Amino acid sequence: MEQFVAVALAHFLALLIPGVDFFLIVRTAAAHGWRLASGVCLGIAIANGVFIAAAFGGLSLVGNDVVLAVVELAGGLFLLWMGVAFWRARVSVPYDESGSARRTSWSRSFGLGLASGLLNPKNLLFYLSLAAATSSAATAARALYGVWMFTVVLVWDLLVAGLMGASRNRRALSAALPWITRVAAVVVAVFGAAAIVAAARILLG
């Protein structure tokens, strides 16, 4: 249960940090409204689902404890680096989306979201890191982690699309981002450090 809480917290806090996917959702919601932005959200969620299945499913096929420990060590180092990057990041949310927006469709929005998610290598590395850090969990538990993360990505993105269509909400989020970023940095870094320690214990006997 403690591991699930740690994974869920690290994953959700990482979602709060604006990245390419986030800004695509915000721009689409501001320019075209929630309906078309929902296509972007579904595309991003499916891309994340592909990476989740590949990371958790692939590592579950590895039976060598040393190999798993090496992957866990690499994943922990990546999460630690990500925590430091979050701490040093200076992120903001654009208040206004001025200018004429080109007409688009729901299917095009879905395709943009899918491409944005699949072409972001940090997504795959992040899920590989989480999968490696939970390599000791039972298969059923890891499957639960995967379903949970896919669901959270979809629900959170749809919520962002609904809220970020209004400029006042973008201003409020931008004001809170420094605090959110620092909290996320600490949690992700601690999770990564714990993975490094666990892997080192296996590798050093």
UniProtKB/TrEMBL annotation:
Keywords: Cell membrane, Membrane, Transmembrane, Transmembrane helix. It is found in: Cell membrane. Signal peptide: none annotated. InterPro entries: LeuE-type. It comes from the Bacteria. One of its GO terms (molecular function) is amino acid transmembrane transporter activity. This is LysE family translocator. The chain crosses the membrane at residues 6-24, 36-60, 66-87, 147-167, 179-204. It comes from Metallococcus carri. The keyword Hydrolase does not apply. GO terms for cellular component: plasma membrane. It is a multi-pass membrane protein.
